């Protein structure tokens, strides 16, 4: 990842905007009262994407290589997979 501005805006600012947009999406889903397995998995997927963006850009893990980059990714993937499995089995 580079810190080179795109259209005059730093990458961390773009990521912050994306995080705000994804938060609005999940808020809208909740306000509309949408439900079901697909919606639940969508919200879970958005949460995992947001966690990955925070880890990569704001915790500085995107600049690391090798083993040090894996703990947060594994921390997101394993509970995410377990939650998705629980949602799917309970549906």
From TrEMBL:
Its main location: membrane. The keyword Transmembrane applies. One of its GO terms (cellular component) is plasma membrane. It is found in: Cell membrane. The keyword Nucleus does not apply. It is a multi-pass membrane protein. Pfam families: COX4_pro. The chain crosses the membrane at residues 6-27, 39-60, 72-89. Coiled coil: none annotated. Keywords: Cell membrane, Membrane, Transmembrane, Transmembrane helix. It comes from the Bacteria. This is O-succinylhomoserine sulfhydrylase. The lineage of its organism: Bacteria, Pseudomonadati, Pseudomonadota, Gammaproteobacteria, Chromatiales.
């Amino acid at each position: 990842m580079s810190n080179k501005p795109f259209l005059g805006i730093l990458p961390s600012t773009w990521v912050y905007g994306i995080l705000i947009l994804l938060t609005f999406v999940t808020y809208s889903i909740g306000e509309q009262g949408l439900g079901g397995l697909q919606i639940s998995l969508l919200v879970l997927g958005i949460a995992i994407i947001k966690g990955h963006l925070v880890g990569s850009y704001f915790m500085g893990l995107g600049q690391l290589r090798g083993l040090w980059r894996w703990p947060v990714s594994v921390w997101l993937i394993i509970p995410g997979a377990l939650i998705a499995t629980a949602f799917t089995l309970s549906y």
